[in-house]
Every structure is written in structure tokens, then in C-alpha cells.
Amino acid sequence: MIDSGFQDVLGQAKKLLNESPFHALRMLHVEQLGDNVMLMGRVESFFLKQLAQETVRSATRGIEMINNVAVHQSP
């Protein structure tokens, strides 16, 4: 069962990503996985992966986050 506190965290994380000036971050997904938050999607650099992680971390308030973002660099 998803409690309202967890929903608030997920909502805030999604809001922060959607408001990012980086388009790639707006395309990522945040979901609950058990007692954790999972960040998923694809970006073109490790910088963007780290930026997404830190953006979501600011909303998780101590909830463990799993960064499952894949980096696919353009040729």
C-alpha cells in the first residue's frame, strides 16, 4: 500500500524533474519500488544522470533512491 507521505515524495520528485531546464530530465520517470524510490529512463551523459539523481534526492527526505537511469551517448 502506498501511503500519502510516499505519494508526496514521489509527486515532489516528479515536479522537480518536470521543472528542470534540462529536457532530458523531464523525460525521466520516478516510481515507488517497495520502500524505495526508483529513478528510471535514459540520458546522453553521466553528468545528466548525476544531475537527475541529485534533483530527486532533494525530494526523497531520507528514503533510499535507486538510480536506474541508463546513459546512451550519441555517436
Termini separation (Å)? 43 Å
Class from helix and strand fractions: alpha+beta
Largest sheet report: 3 strands, mixed
Broad shape: globular
At CATH level 3, the topology is Histidine-containing Protein, Chain: A
Mean of all residue-level pLDDT scores: 91
Secondary-structure element pattern, one letter each = HHEEHE
Strand content: 25-35%
Kindly provide the radius of gyration, computed on alpha-carbon positions and rounded to a whole number of angstroms. Answer: 12 Å
Q: Total number of β-strand segments?
A: 3
- Provide the spatial order of strands within the biggest beta sheet: 1-2-3
Low-confidence stretches: none
The overall number of domains is 1
CATH architecture label: 2-Layer Sandwich
Proportion of residues in helical segments: 40-55%
Q: TL;DR of this structure?
A:
It is built from 3 helices and 3 strands; from the N terminus they run ααββαβ. A 3-stranded mixed sheet has the order 1-2-3.
Features:
globular; alpha+beta; 75 residues; Histidine-containing Protein, Chain: A
3D structure, described in words:
This protein is of the alpha+beta class and 75 residues long. It has a single domain (4-71), classed as Histidine-containing Protein, Chain: A (2-Layer Sandwich). 45% of the residues lie in helices and 27% in strands. It has three helices and three strands, in the order ααββαβ. It has helices at 4-18, 23-26, 46-60; strands spanning 29-33, 36-43, 65-71. It has a three-stranded mixed beta sheet. The protein is globular and about 45 Å long. 20% of the residues are buried. The model has no long low-confidence stretch (mean pLDDT 91).
